[in-house]
Amino acid sequence: MQISHTMNEAITEKKYPIQWIWVLKPRLKIIWIFIYVLLLMYFIAKDGPSTYPPFLFLFLFLPMFLYYSNVILQRINFHYTIEDKVFALKQGFITKKQSYIPYGTIQNILISQDLFDRILGVTTLKIENASQGADGDSTKRGAFALEIGVNGNQIIIPGLLKQHAEFLRENILQKVKENPITTIKSGL
Fold first, then answer.
1. Which of 7, 30, 82, 176 has the fewest CB atoms found within 10 Å of its own CB?
2. Position 121 in a domain
3. Structural domain containing residue 112
């Protein structure tokens, strides 16, 4: 499938969207904890599931519901645009953030697919820039780190079709070539 793009059209997430199937991508830690708790409950209960307190299932399903609600809200409130001089991002549903990354600071663009991405037929585009970012060291990510948007010095755009991710990478690489970072001479 060849993707065409004219010079007058803006390259945005509306034209190259994150696929909604990405929202279903499970988090292994949550699934493993869920299975562990279910097995623990099975072996602890003397008379089977009928002896479980009614609120116990609320505690089991509430974390999954909150996690997926968070992922859906992140997706709904994430927008990117490839502009002439910067890569623009808007994200956040409680705290709104706008980021403008000059193309000259972009160091690396990766397209990756983990096992679940391959099963769902999507890819993740990661753009690494030279700045440290507001979140500090991007190598220190917790269990619930952002899976979309700005995370340290990375911009993560998951759930793209492979041909869309490749098209975006090529376009960004072209912008990086057209907009090199200017060096400032210190005069020393």
1. 7
2. yes
3. 11-24+72-178
